Amino acid sequence: MSDVQIHPYSMIFGWEDDEGLGAQLIEQIIRGEKTATCALKEDYTEEELRNTYVPVGKLITVYDKEGTPHCNVKLIEVFETTFGQPDPRLVYGEGNGTDIEQFQEDHRKAWSNLPFKLEEDSILIVELFEFVQS
Q1: Domain-wise residue ranges, the chain
Q2: Domain 10-133, what fold?
Q3: CA-angle at 41, arms to 20 and 113, nearest 5°
Q4: pTM as predicted
Q5: Which among 34, 85, 98, 132 is most buried, taking Cβ atoms within 10 Å?
């Protein structure tokens, strides 16, 4: 990622060697197909976790991994769920409809090169949002 200063109320999609996944996710947000994102709770510092809840109800700018802004979303809710029994709003918002197994498979694949293993009891931090503008 570049050294660009990013607004504190932001989401960044993509990482080095993500094979275009970040750009694909941003396009899904713009088309209104993606209305949720998640990350492992263990991946957050205490301060990052606290700050995740702050912008509920506010506009969030969505950036790519290079620091380029693409659109704005309104953060609706932040909550915890498990990877093994994910909240249906997360599964739907990630574009998987009601297919929990597909949601899990997609995340295992997307996160396969990261330094953690997804377990049934892994806690996910979920951010639900709605597209506002590009």
Answers
A1: 10-133
A2: Sulfate adenylyltransferase (3.10.400)
A3: 35
A4: 0.87
A5: 34
The count of other CB atoms within 10 Å of the CB of residue 68 is 11
Q: Is 36 exposed, middle or buried (0-12, 13-18, 19+ CB in 10 A)?
A: buried
What pLDDT score was predicted for residue 115?
A: 79
Encode pLDDT of 39-54 as tens digits.
999 989 999 999 999 8
CA distance 133 to 52: 21
- Beta strands 36-40 and 59-64 are unpaired
Plot region of 14 (φ>0 → left; ψ -120 to 50 → alpha; else → beta):
left
Three-state SS at 23: helix
Closest CA to 129 of 48, 24, 17, 52: 52
The pLDDT assigned to 4 comes to 43
- What confidence tens digit (pLDDT) does each residue in 58-70 have? 999 999 999 999 9
